[in-house]
Design a protein that fits this description.
By secondary structure, the protein is α/β, with parallel strands linked by helices. The chain is about 40% helix and about 20% strand.
Length: about 350
C-alpha cells in the first residue's frame, strides 16, 4: 500500500459513487495515495459499478453491514498505510485537497488528525453541517462547529480560514495517522453511526494529541445521504451515543454532574418533539436513555482504561460555557460570537 489510503465506506451508494467518485479519482495524487472502496455488503451493485468503471481501485468486501464505525475498523485492519483518510461517499473533493494536509501532518508529528474546510455541496457558499470548519463540544457535551451552531449554518466569507486546533474532526473527511487511530482504539463499534468520530477525537485529545482544521483544503459534502434528518433512528443514535461518549471519557463525579443536566434537557427536547408531532423521534430519545442505561455497565473497564491512559483533563478545545444558553438565551448565533 502507498503512504496514504483514501477509504470510502459504501453501503448501497452506487448513485453517490457515480456522482462523487470521479472528483476523488481526478484530484487525488495516485503517486502517494491509494483509493479504496470498503463495501458494507451492498445489494445495489455498487461493487460491480466500481469494478467496471474504476478497475484500478482497490475494493474491500465486508460480509455484513457493520455501520460506519465497525465498517471502517474492519476495512482499515486490512490496510497498511501511514495515513488513513476516512471519506464519505457523498463528498466532492477539490483540486489539491489532500497534499497540503499530509504535508502539514508530516511537519507536525504531535498532530494526530485533521480535517479540511467542509462546505455544502448543494450550496457551496455555505458551510456544511457535519464538520464545517472544525468541531467542538461544550461543557455539557453538545457538539457544534466553527461555522455551524445547532441548525444555524453560516455562509463562508473566509472568516474562519485560519488553521486552528479543534476538538473533533468530521468523519465526513477525517485524515488520521494510522498509528494514532489504533493506539486510541479505533472507532467504537457500539456507536454504529453518529458521534463515533467525536468519541475517537476525545480519546486523542485526552492523550495529548492535537487535532486541527486546515481550511486551505476544501471539500464539499452533501450530508444526510444515509439517514434522513428527521429519522427516529438518527435521533436515537445521536442521543444514545452522546451519553455513551460522555460516560466513556469523564470521571464519575464529572459525568454525574453533567448527566443531571442532560437528563432534564433531553427530556425537554423529547417533549418539544412530541408537541411538534414527531412522536417517533420523541420516543427515540427515551429509548436512547434506556439503551444507555442497559449498556453502561459494559463500559466500566473501557472507561477505566480511557481514564488511565489520559494525560490531561484540561482540554482547551472544550468550550467552557453552555452552547445552549449562549445560543438560545444570549442569542449568540455565530461561532465568532463565542468567548473562550
Amino acid at each position: 500500500m502507498k503512504k496514504i489510503s483514501v477509504v470510502i465506506l459504501n453501503w448501497n451508494g452506487r448513485d453517490l459513487l457515480e456522482e462523487f467518485l470521479p472528483s476523488v479519482v481526478k484530484f487525488t495524487n495516485s503517486n502517494t495515495a491509494d483509493i479504496v472502496i470498503a463495501d458494507n455488503n451492498s445489494t445495489d451493485q455498487s461493487v460491480l459499478f466500481v469494478k467496471q468503471q474504476y478497475p484500478s481501485l482497490s475494493i474491500i468486501k465486508l460480509p455484513d453491514n457493520y455501520g460506519y464505525a465497525e465498517g471502517y475498523n474492519k476495512a482499515l485492519q486490512q490496510i497498511e498505510s501511514e495515513y488513513y483518510v476516512l471519506l464519505n461517499s457523498d463528498v466532492e473533493v477539490s483540486e489539491n485537497w489532500l497534499d497540503p494536509i499530509i504535508d502539514h501532518l508530516d511537519k507536525n508529528k504531535d498532530i494526530a488528525a485533521a480535517q479540511p474546510k467542509i462546505l455544502s455541496q448543494k450550496n457551496k457558499t455555505l458551510f456544511e453541517y457535519a464538520g464545517a470548519c472544525g468541531g467542538f463540544i461544550d461543557r455539557l457535551g453538545y457538539p457544534f462547529c466553527r461555522g455551524r451552531i445547532f441548525n444555524n449554518v453560516e455562509q463562508d466569507h473566509n472568516q474562519y480560514n485560519k488553521p486552528i486546533d479543534i476538538f473533533w474532526a468530521s468523519g465526513a473527511c477525517l485524515v488520521i495517522r494510522a498509528k494514532d487511530y489504533w493506539n486510541a482504539g479505533g472507532l467504537d463499534a457500539t456507536f454504529f453511526a453518529h458521534m463515533e468520530e467525536i468519541d475517537l477525537c476525545w480519546r486523542l485529545n485526552a492523550r495529548g494529541k492535537k487535532i486541527v482544521c486546515l481550511p486551505h483544503s476544501i471539500v464539499y459534502h452533501v450530508g444526510g445521504a444515509t439517514l434522513q434528518e428527521e429519522s427516529p433512528r438518527k435521533t436515537f443514535l445521536n442521543f444514545r451515543n452522546n451519553l455513551l461518549m460522555l460516560y466513556k471519557n469523564t470521571s464519575d463525579g464529572h459525568f454525574n454532574r453533567i448527566f443531571r443536566y442532560r437528563k432534564i434537557l433531553d427530556y425537554i427536547a423529547a417533549l418539544q418533539m412530541l408537541i411538534s408531532g414527531k412522536k417517533k423521534n420523541a420516543k427515540a430519545v427515551l429509548d436512547a436513555h434506556k439503551d444507555f442505561k442497559s449498556i453502561r455497565n459494559e463500559y466500566i473497564q473501557i472507561r477505566d482504561k480511557n481514564l488511565l491512559l489520559s494525560t490531561t483533563t484540561n482540554i482547551k478545545s472544550i468550550y467552557p460555557q453552555s452552547i445552549l444558553a449562549d445560543f438560545y438565551l444570549k442569542r449568540k448565533k455565530l461561532f465568532s460570537d463565542l468567548k473562550w
